[in-house]
Amino acid sequence: MSNWLRAHVSTEIKNARRDLFEKALANMGYKPDYSEKTVHGAYSYEASEKVDCVLRDKDGKLTTIGFSFDQGPKGEVMLKVSGDFFNCGFNGNTFMKRLGMQYNFEMSKECMEEMGYNIESVENKEHEIVFVGYRMAA
């Protein structure tokens, strides 16, 4: 039984940036393949949708999950996920929460570095991420 999902990811990732999106996916063991423009269902090529990229897993195998970068009503970039989560080992909501957390992690790390902090270490606990860093006083 397939579990096809089409959803805008506006609650987790607002004004999506491709560079942070790619880093977040890499943290999860995935890589976007922008040469693939169609995502297919796990058991049926009839269940398909046009996307901007399809995910490859850590072994380089194409998954049944794709993403599109759509223009929102206020001009913002909205990330849309489409695909079949049946053989992924998790559901779409869990995947998107993890992706949102990793995306926010990368954004927070970038903001801290822009404010002059040197990130010494990162602890990725079950439901929280802890940055350890320092900044030289002026």
Q: Summarize the biggest pleated sheet.
A: 5 strands, antiparallel
Q: Using only CA atoms, what is the Rg?
A: 17 Å
Count of DSSP H/I helices? 2
Runs in which pLDDT lies below 50 for 5 or more consecutive residues are 8-12
Strand content: 35-45%
C-alpha end-to-end distance: 60 Å
Strands in their spatial order, largest beta sheet = 1-7-6-5-2
Give a count of the beta strands, DSSP E runs of length 2 or more.
9
Give the helices and strands as they follow along the chain: EHEEEEEEHEE
Global shape: elongated
Give structural notes.
About 4% of the residues have low confidence. With 138 residues, this protein is an alpha+beta fold. The protein is 25% helix and 36% strand. The longest helix is centred in the C-terminal third of the chain and has 23 residues. The strands form 3 sheets. The chain has a 5-stranded antiparallel beta sheet. It has a two-stranded antiparallel ribbon with strand order 3-4. A two-stranded antiparallel sheet has the order 8-9. It starts with a strand and ends with a strand.
